[in-house]
């Protein structure tokens, strides 16, 4: 838990910073940084898995995660927002999440057929291939967007010279900048609140579920892995097939509420599971529950100007990191209390039900979300009003 707290605290600070820097220096440049660093811990275990190499892996992985945990999905979403029109953004965000979920399923399946040494070698090789592919084939998305990556030609040379050393520090976001961003739009701040409670709920479920299933139904690690694979496969199919079809028809706000509702139902069903097959049935509800985060990210991106998409996604990822600190501190002791020999009252799934109530807060918040005019639409309408 201490490691997760350290990583979460680092990510709360680092994610808005990396997102803001990507608005100025480009998504591709900032993506290179975490993708390169993520290779080294895997390479250590691919080389050797003796005690001291494992210690080196653990320390290096923790330090890198403090800076880079969650940065690749964050910057990838900002990149997609740069290149996809608002009307298609929810569907494409869903496809991106579906690809991530598919990779999770493939990784779990391949680990069952590979030896331990081969697993880390394949993982390190895959990370290298991803980095090379990104550098070779991914075009920069903000080069021609007018983003202030460099000083404009109208800047006075005398003003530019003394401030050049401090230029990067002016671009670093402060806490006040984050608060200002949350105040930019009521819809964005509501999406941020929903993101926090949704992540508290999801992380609380994962912090409790393994111990609950082991205590109640004697699940072993293989059965739990099967459960994750079933949920991941269902999520992949849903995000890759269903969401691109439903997002244009229903809109992301209705789809968000539907996803949160089924996410809560999924947790409540886990909490009262009466037989060993119930968790498998509950896992199938993730077919709909996985709509939540792509919809939230799409709604938030439409409330922020095109030149601040990195800052917006970094802010939401930082909020998710804050939830990753808060949630285990609440749900891990709660799970231990109700699975102990002397619980306050008999309800082994009480902590999972509490996680469901946290998701219910996010669901109520999603209902309050109103159809808000996006920044692009408001800029277009204001320019139309200025035309004679």
TrEMBL record:
Which InterPro entries does its entry note?
MFS, MFS_dom, MFS_trans_sf, Tet-R_TetA/multi-R_MdtG-like
* Major localization listed first in the record, in broad terms: membrane
Q: Which GO terms describe its cellular component?
A: membrane
What are the entry keywords?
Membrane, Transmembrane, Transmembrane helix, Transport
Give the superkingdom in one word.
Answer: Eukaryota
What does the UniProt entry say about where the protein is found?
Membrane
Q: Which CDD domains match?
A: MFS_SLC46_TetA_like (cd17330)
Pfam annotation, one family: MFS_1
Membrane topology, from the record: Multi-pass membrane protein
Name the family.
Belongs to the major facilitator superfamily. Phosphate:H(+) symporter (TC 2.A.1.9) family.
What protein am I looking at?
Secondary carrier transporter
